[in-house]
Amino acid sequence: MIPDDLDTIVGRLAERFSAQRGALLPLLHAIQEEVGWVPDAATPLGARALNLSRAEVHGVVTFYHDFRREPAGRHVVKLCLAEACKARGVGAIEAALADRLGVGIDKTRADGQVSFEAVYCLGLCATGPNALVDDRPVSRLDARKVDRIVAQVSA
Amino acid sequence: MTRAYISCDMASVALGADDIAEALTAAGCTVIRTGARGLFAIEPLVEIETTDGARIAYGPVEPEDVPAILDDTHPNRIGDLATLPFFAKQQRFTFARCGITDPLSMADYTAHDGWKGLAAARALPPQAVVDAVKASGLRGRGGAGFPTGIKWQTVLDAASPEKFIVCNADEGDSGTFADRMLMEGDPYCLLEGMAIAGHAVGASHGYIYVRSEYPFAIRALNAAIERAGPILAPFTVEVRVGAGAYVCGEETALLESIEGKRGQVRAKPPLPAIQGLFGQPTVINNVLSLAAIPFILAEGPERYAEVGFSRSRGTMPVQLAGNVKNGGLFEIGFGITLGELVNDIGGGTESGRPVRAVQVGGPLGAYFPPSMFDLAFDYEAFAAAGGLIGHAGITVFDDTVDMAAMARFAMEFCAVESCGKCTPCRIGSTRGVETLDRIIGDRIKGAAQREQALEAMPQMRNAKVKHRSVDEEIGVLRDLCETMKFGSLCALGGFTPYPVLSALDHFPEDFGGARALPQAAE
Amino acid sequence: MGWIGEIDLGTKPMPVTGPLVSLTIDGQPVDVPAGTSIMRAAALMGTNIPKLCATDTLESFGSCRICLVEIDGRAGYPASCTTPVTPGMVVRTQTDKLAKLRKGVMELYISDHPLDCLTCSANGDCELQDQAGAVGLRDVRYGYDGANHLDAAKDESNPYFTFDPAKCIVCSRCVRACDEVQGTLALTVDGRGFSSHIAASQDEDFLSSECVSCGACVQACPTSALIEKEVIKVGTPDKAVITTCAYCGVGCTFRAEMRGEQLVRMVPWKDGKANRGHSCVKGRFAWGYANHKERILNPMIRASVHEPWREVSWEEAIAHTASEFRRIQSTYGTRAVGGITSSRCTNEETFLVQKLIRQGFGNNNVDTCARVCHSPTGYGLKTTFGTSAGTQDFDSVQHSDVILVIGANPTDGHPVFASRMKRRLRQGAKLIVIDPRRTDLVRSPHIEAAHHLSLRPGTNVAVLTAMAHVIVTEGLFDEAYIRERCDWDEYEDWAAFVSEDHRSPEASAEITGVDPDELRKAARLYATGGNGAIYYGLGVTEHSQGSSTVMAIANLAMATGNVGREGVGVNPLRGQNNVQGACDMGSFPHEFSGYRHVSDPEARAMFEDAWGVPLDDEPGLRIPNMLDAATDGAFKALFIQGEDILQSDPNTAHVAAGLAAMECVVVQDLFLNETANYAHVFLPGSTFLEKDGTFTNAERRIQRVRKVMSPLNGFADWEIVQMVAQAMGLGWNYTHPSEIMDEIAALTPSFANVHYDALEEHGSLQWPATAAAPLGTPTMHLDGFVRGKGRFVVTDYVATDEKTGPRFPLLLTTGRILSHYNVGAQTRRTDNVAWHPEDLLEIHPHDAENRGLHDGQWVSLRSRAGETTLRALVTERVAPGVVYTTFHHPTTQANVITTDFSDWATNCPEYKVTAVQVSPSNGPSDWQESYEAQAKRSRRIEPRLEPAE
């Protein structure tokens, strides 16, 4: 799962941000984009590249919900559970998706096919319930769109 | 060739705008992607340009509707959008271009009065620019409502070789999307505002901190920065992407995050204006505050200040969200009442059921019942009513809402998003969820088990089990809210009590159903 | 004695820069410096606002929210720790509303805290407990079965302290202490919100994390989450004594905290002027050697080193010693005996040993371990500036803009000062490192040297001269300063010398291996970057050109106007706790106390008057000369107090031969050290915990050492020396070390005002403390150099005779590591071995690959002097062609390898440059095995027969 050339990858990405101040978040984003997650093994490499302590990098990785310390499922469904979507009935959608995907919120299905995650607001608050399916936004979720999502992530 | 306008706003795309754009292109149209007009009930929305340059709107539409649109037979024909009451009633200062222009077209931006504010500002000495902002009466649109000009004055007065402009685009409040719409629909406007701020206070570099949940805005800004670089120069701007932390919308946590650290809130003082990003004097303003600046400089502060109400001057892009018929962005001068916004503009609930509650100002805002709908949209009026305008998001709920569950959600959200620095927020939010669980009775079964477990212990056989009534539990909750409200370091812990207490105060009937619980042995 | 509780004022003091700010707190007026927090202002007038996350050693943080106050005209309840006072402010610290808020917050804390106060190791010494009482918490209405951290696993990996997350209140004081005070940044908060918890590095155990065990986190913790294992074992202390650390030359002040007669912990003292409340793993924790089972508590004698030791009474041991020295002197002459004073003993004890030699032995054959470390400092700085000591106090570094570190590794050797330096560097001061190794200062979290000149060992003078070349030829020198303060003619001679083309960076690069561009930039930075301060260590002195290098440093400082104010100067980082003091006290064969030559009739007369005997006007023998004389048969007896020359001095075989040739070697020490293998009399020594006295640190600061417990061996070292003196017929009659200091003050002009009552009153004094400067002298040469005009000395680079060649192609340089101290006699007998159980040979990957070596492998290390074996550590910290090791472990005996080349002026050995070869090996060398066997034989002890009554 962890790429063999993680040190090369981190070194190359760190180089890209070397001129930036406060480059840790951009670096972690870049690692996650390239590797898919931020393995703990990347922490000492990032720390060395940016001349930070391992503790500092670890503290940052664990603070931000975006950074995954475990690989995600092959597909990721993020469902907004914030107030505006609640007002538009996301409760029923959450139940339907959990049932149809076979995995509860904030979990990855055992076969690694799909991660089902909560997100708090996508800024589409007049047209909820909303989701990001593999980073594509979907609004006005209803039974028909749940079907489509399930089909999409089962592929 | 027919020119068709369709929004590339994330909300429009989430409703299928890309597919329609594709269908229009396939049908031979020249498709121009614009920002969103702001009324999402009619999205996906297509506007077809007539030979005389007018635009005829159709919406909502589906890809298969393209032929009907092109031969003008579609039943959802709206015609000239400007005549719709939703648009006719607005005072679009900040969002004047949004939905009209191609967001990344420099020609469009220039043609629609772009860069006029920057040119005007650069013709003035910094102090004169700051004076103009003061005269406009502009107050921080992020929620706190602090006068923008005074903040700028502090940074201008701070002697330092290095200063920064930071745009807070970490729009995390549920029910708000104005920042996102502006960044996607008119990014140059924000960049222009930042460059004016840079000139005004003597800062040469700016950061826009955008939440990672806004990928469209991030793309738009990066593209805009690249194209506008020569005009902005010597001012430079960089986009920094958040990483899933609501608390980074708090200005000091945001600064920490840009510095590459955990997004923990700093104690104030020192104010960021004196010691902000990387320890240097920093203007940190919300997207809407900075985006209001070009208008103020281009049209003059008086023009901006002449609308508004009491000490709240200018316009506010109000966002109608949740279960509302005409959801979207509505820019209007301060002073309009809550009822007008929800019922007249918003058209009541989308579900058609009665409005039971509206939450104003995001997850930290208070819930109001319709009985308070005569409240004027104004910073002071809302504060007096135990609420806040915040980022001007209004989330509408119909009568199916369970207000105890919403109060619990407020605590849960705080627990999920707490940075963990101060105790009232770090521990209090979790205790709040637990206390509300006891009140709601979700955990009655758990409590019963606990009781049994205690009873099973020999030394407890004869112990008297004291039961705590719902009223007593509510007393604990109110005390906790007080501790959080007055004890927390920042607004996350400090304002979470607003939705909780307002739910308790205005909807007490939703909290009364739980049975008395035994109190844990001490 | 008694419990010296430290008052915590909550936030840091503010300098007085203008008029005081007047405000009212609880109706009482108070005036404080601008910038002071409300919390501190209240504490200063005696009002303690409840607090948990605030402590006056850290920046205010504002997280615990129990220090809230009310301020007239201000909404809400600001935290008093983060709110500075303003003129006319009216503050209330106690109202019903505040009481309720504080109680509410405390209720939250306790809802996630074990209710085990009675069995908690911090019971009675816990801020959480105190504050819960102070806010009057009586009830936790949330119950105790909500979410909590009570089952979190304890981390006991660190030998000295435990981390129990269940007791943690996540105030981040530990994290902040690690960041702000220590500068290692080994701790963080993992996660956020309710799940926030303190983590070492990547949430691993402390021992395997980046933690260097300085103890700052333990010190900062307000609960028992981080607590010393000794407190868990013994209980909380009930009394404390302020004393001075006996490890390195930083001279940290500690509170030795006791429970009865038992030492429980050493806690760095906030008012200590050298350490300002900080500590390192050695001083803070590694004091267990004081009670180690190998400590020798009874005197012992033997006729020959082949015999086992025989335990004897003190009377017998003293009488035997005195009679042996008298016998040998009558047989072989007055000058056939000598002594070595210890840089680990007190000033008073050192003074007595040299007095014993000069007054009792009647010669000047006294030397000290400074011979092998900082003797070139004494020579070089005296020659150029007029004083044999560093020019600044440690606080000075806070005012430096450019810090040049040459031949020093402060993060390992002087860790507490290194933390101060790193703090300044994090604030933006620039750093230049001149060192063959990539030390931690070159690059470690948030620290990065602007220039690292990685020179070939032995070429310091060439590098510094090349820097001088740049400064002179590019016109970067401070002419006004030089003309005013220095001898201009001498400057011109020197300037002409350094300006010669072949001394340019480009020309000397072939010798030094330093990139000329980098060197030029470094020189420009030092000359023009503001306040430039030079810190150096044994990497400067322990060379054949040690004294030249010290003078080259002084030249640079004078040429750029960097002597004589705060933030600048020339600062030797002294190795041992009292090496400065040992030098001051007349431990050298040519100098009385205060660096006055024995041939100076005026000085000699002073001592002759006081001591009532004529004194030798000829300088005596230095250590290497004593050893040479011994092998030649002319030197027969040596009194060695607290030094292990066999392990610490170069060319072990030569030292062993010298010792073996003597008839009476007296060793006074805590343990049967390596030198004792060649001794005839062993006098048990006392630890610094067992006596009164003073140490003088690297900043010339004289600080009290106070008796914490009775000497296990029966006597303090000064008493033992006095007994020897009395047995030799000298009429000494000191009843307390303060009387010795009075004599020192009377006989040493620079110590004229140093008396114990003054030390009690002021905490410490930096010499010179004279009538002109009764409170001492933090910064030297303020209005001019002590010698008058600063003297530029031409320092020609002369290559060492130690050359690499086909047989010995690599250069060995030696040094120290954080967890160990000197020959390791103390630290090896503590749990510090957890970090560094053996000496390792650092070798560059290229050199390792060429020799087929891999990490962790046994290797043989050979020089023309000898051979040893140890394990290899393959690392890029050393440059290709250079290898490095430490000398902490006698099983390695690194000094078997080092040669007897030494500094031309002072004989300081050239430890730092030895040509060696490295090859694979299967295990210990023959020499190591035979040494091991011989040491074992030599350490046999026959138990003492109880005398029949």
What does this 3D model show about the protein?
The complex is a heterotrimer of chains A (155), B (522) and C (949). Helices cover 46% and strands 13% of the residues of chain A. Chain A has helices spanning 6-16, 24-35, 42-50, 54-63, 83-87, 90-101, 143-154; strands at 75-80, 107-108, 114-119, 131-133, 136-138. Chain A has a 5-stranded mixed beta sheet with strand order 2-3-1-4-5, with helices on one face. The longest helix of chain A has 12 residues, at 24-35. In chain B, a hairpin with a 6-residue loop joins strand 14 (355-360) and strand 15 (367-368). Chain B has 4 domains: 3-84, 3-Layer(aba) Sandwich (Glutaredoxin), CATH 3.40.30.10; 106-305, Rossmann fold (3-Layer(aba) Sandwich); 309-398, Ubiquitin-like (UB roll) (Roll); 403-511, NADH-ubiquinone oxidoreductase 51kDa subunit, iron-sulphur binding domain (de novo design (two linked rop proteins), Up-down Bundle). Chain B starts with a strand and ends with a strand. Chain C is α/β, with parallel strands linked by helices and 949 residues long. Chain C is built from 29 helices and 37 strands. In chain C, the strands form 10 sheets. Chain C has an 8-stranded mixed beta sheet. Chain C has a 6-stranded mixed beta barrel with strand order 31-35-32-34-33-36. In chain C, 60% of the residues are buried. At the A-B interface, helix 2, helix 4 and helix 5 of A face helix 1, strand 8, strand 12, strand 16 and helix 17 of B. Chain C: Residues 917-949 are annotated as: Disordered. Chain C: GO terms for molecular function: 2 iron, 2 sulfur cluster binding; 4 iron, 4 sulfur cluster binding; formate dehydrogenase (NAD+) activity; metal ion binding; molybdopterin cofactor binding; NADH dehydrogenase activity. Chain C: Residues 940-949 have a biased composition (Basic and acidic residues).
Secondary-structure map:
The complex is a heterotrimer of chains A (155), B (522) and C (949).
Chain A: H1 6-16, H2 24-35, H3 42-50, H4 54-63, E1 75-80, H5 83-87, H6 90-101, E2 107-108, E3 114-119, E4 131-133, E5 136-138, H7 143-154
Parallel strand pairs in A: 1-3
Antiparallel strand pairs in A: 1-4, 2-3, 4-5
Helix pairs in contact in A: 1-2, 1-3, 3-4, 6-7
Chain B: E1 3-7, H1 10-14, H2 17-26, E2 30-34, E3 46-49, E4 55-58, H3 66-70, E5 77-79, H4 85-88, H5 106-111, H6 116-122, H7 126-136, H8 148-157, E6 164-169, H9 178-185, H10 187-201, E7 205-210, H11 215-232, E8 236-241, H12 251-258, E9 282-286, H13 287-299, H14 301-305, E10 308-309, E11 312-313, E12 315-322, E13 328-333, H15 338-345, E14 355-360, E15 367-368, H16 379-384, E16 393-398, H17 403-417, H18 423-426, H19 428-440, H20 444-456, E17 467-468, H21 470-487, H22 491-495, H23 497-506, E18 517-518
Parallel strand pairs in B: 1-2, 6-7, 6-9, 7-8, 12-16
Antiparallel strand pairs in B: 1-3, 3-4, 4-5, 10-11, 12-13, 14-15, 14-16, 17-18
Helix pairs in contact in B: 6-10, 6-13, 7-8, 7-10, 9-10, 9-11, 10-11, 10-13, 17-19, 17-23, 19-21, 21-23
Chain C: E1 21-25, E2 28-32, H1 38-44, E3 70-71, E4 90-92, H2 96-110, H3 127-135, E5 161-163, H4 173-182, E6 187-190, E7 197-200, H5 216-220, E8 226-228, H6 229-234, E9 239-244, E10 253-259, E11 262-268, H7 281-285, E12 300-301, E13 309-311, H8 314-332, E14 337-341, H9 347-361, E15 366-368, H10 375-384, E16 402-406, H11 410-413, H12 415-426, E17 430-434, E18 443-444, E19 447-448, E20 451-453, H13 460-473, H14 479-485, H15 488-499, H16 505-512, H17 516-528, E21 532-536, H18 538-541, H19 546-559, E22 569-572, H20 579-584, E23 591-592, E24 596-597, H21 601-611, H22 623-631, E25 637-641, H23 645-648, H24 652-660, E26 664-669, E27 681-684, E28 693-696, E29 701-705, H25 717-727, H26 737-747, H27 756-762, E30 764-766, E31 810-815, E32 840-843, H28 845-850, E33 858-862, E34 867-874, E35 882-886, E36 914-920, H29 926-938, E37 941-942
Parallel strand pairs in C: 1-4, 13-37, 14-15, 14-25, 16-17, 16-21, 17-20, 21-22, 25-26, 26-27, 31-35, 32-34
Antiparallel strand pairs in C: 1-2, 3-4, 5-8, 6-7, 9-10, 10-11, 12-13, 12-27, 18-19, 23-24, 28-29, 29-30, 31-36, 32-35, 33-34, 33-36
Helix pairs in contact in C: 8-25, 9-25, 9-26, 10-19, 13-16, 13-17, 13-19, 16-17, 22-24
